[in-house]
Amino acid sequence: MISIAIVEDNDQFRLGLESIILGQKDLLLLASFEDAEKAITALPKMNVDIVISDISLPGMRGTELILRLNQKMPHTQFMVCSIHDDDDTIFETLKCGASGYILKDPITADEIIRSIHDLYNGGAPMSPYIAKKVISTFQKPTSKSPQSVLSVRENEVLELLSKGLLYKEIANKMGVSHETVKKHLKNIYQKLHVNNKIEALNKFKLL
Amino acid sequence: MISIAIVEDNDQFRLGLESIILGQKDLLLLASFEDAEKAITALPKMNVDIVISDISLPGMRGTELILRLNQKMPHTQFMVCSIHDDDDTIFETLKCGASGYILKDPITADEIIRSIHDLYNGGAPMSPYIAKKVISTFQKPTSKSPQSVLSVRENEVLELLSKGLLYKEIANKMGVSHETVKKHLKNIYQKLHVNNKIEALNKFKLL
DNA sequence: GTTAGTATTCCCCGAAAGGGGTATTGTTTG
DNA sequence: CAAACAATACCCCTTTCGGGGAATACTAAC
User: Fold this and answer.
1) Quick one: pLDDT at residue B144?
2) CATH no. for residue B187?
């Protein structure tokens, strides 16, 4: 049995969510709030598995709500259901600790139920559009970025270095001598105008 | 009609994938490769919507394959289907340009078909476990994360360390001796179970 | 009021990293 | 073809780190 709480100011959507949850035998609707204030005082006293929240709430943003609740309720998972699909809102929400983000616009009762189960089982339910945005942040800025000043081999060295490996471990992985790794690092430092590993990695990540 | 190519060295799994795709009226299996070499020469000449690839391939890693194909085939989407669930492999794959990552272990024909459609429609299909890992990288290091075990002073040290400062420079900034900084670092390493600066910063998410 | 944790300083020692060279082998590119 | 560069490997030397202690002082908790 999965216990659930809702925070949603739009009456129509909240009632819709409630009826969806009430219609499932393995879902238990423990509470339903119209605003963040009531939620933030009542929820920490309850033992809820999952909180489904809106982002635009009267008084407090959903991100703020999740951030605060997250600290008080370490065992509770948070999922946002919102109309907002802009980068700022999405990533701010994730940073605040939400483990799911689904868009209201194209959503079915079935998807909501699947998302709840997914979240409960350690997953991170996202609408396709959200998932795409999230994954896109990992994509390498291919060709011409600051990497371009570094050779292929030098990039490999930095990549391994960023994992915390020692010179000799990097040398093993790359199949070269420890001295070669050292030489690569020397050249990298010259090219990036830095003097140690951490400075190099900082420059590397930001170019 | 969605045109698809497969790169998978495991005969059983490749045949399984093929039959799943052949069984769908709106999916068209254009090619199926057992190794990366053949794929990398043949695929750029074909007009494929989606490439489903393994990671562990004979000769070349799937990440390398995707990276190279990605540059030559800007309109093709790549999805990985692998048994690997370690952070390194997952994020390396995403960096190389894959827009989907599903795990072989718990997978059904239905999920594969859904993933293909999702990908074709601009989504980013991920197994729940993968989605969770991806989303976790955005989480702010709040309450119960590595920071909580570190003292205020230790946090200050790490903060300065992340800028690439030397022990003696940190000591100056903090108004303590170089040996004190060293001692703080020793304690930090013990608490975080690491052995050097970069590993510590990685745990701390500061790098 | 003793125990636990933090902050501070110091010692020794060996390993790792950084800076200065030099040199060979390819590859690329005017 | 020469010049430039990437990759490889080695030398010497100094500095920085990391791990092992030990000691003092303060604070908080039990």
Assistant:
1) 42
2) 1.10.10.10
Q: Give the CATH number, domain containing residue A46.
A: 3.40.50.2300
Indicate yes or no: strand C within 7 A of the C-beta of A153.
no
Residues A134 and A150 both lie in one domain: no
Q: How many domains, in total, are found in chain A?
A: 2
Closest residue on chain A to B143 (Cα): A71
* Rounded CA separation B66/A30 (Å): 46
Q: Which residues of chain B have pLDDT under 50?
A: 143-144, 207
* pLDDT, tens digit, 9 for 90 and up, residues A101-160: 999 887 888 888 888 888 888 788 898 888 888 888 887 654 334 455 788 888 888 888
Nearest-10 crossing angle of helices A62-72, A87-95: 10
Measured from the CB, is A155 under 7 Å from any atom of strand D? Answer: no
Determine the structural domain holding residue B196 and report its residue range.
146-205
Asked whether A7 and A62 are in contact (CB, 8 A), the reply is: yes
Compare CB distances from B128 to A95, A122, A135 and report the shortest one's residue: A122
- Which of B122, B140, B196 shows the shortest C-beta gap to A132? B122
Partners of A100 in the beta sheet?
A: A79
Distance B196 CA to C19 C1' (A): 22
Q: How far is the CA of B143 from the C1' of D29 (A)?
A: 22
Residues A68 and A16 in one domain: yes
Residue A30 shares a structural domain with residue A121: yes
By C-alpha distance, which of B88, B125, B85, B123 is closest to B104? B85
How much of chain A exceeds pLDDT 70, in percent? 94
Q: Rg of chain A over CA atoms, in angstroms?
A: 23
Q: How would residue A166 be classed by pLDDT, with cut points 50, 70 and 90?
A: very high
* Residue B201 shares a structural domain with residue B165: yes
Q: How far apart are CA B125 and CA B108, in angstroms?
A: 14
Nearest-neighbour CA in chain A from B40: distance (Å): 19
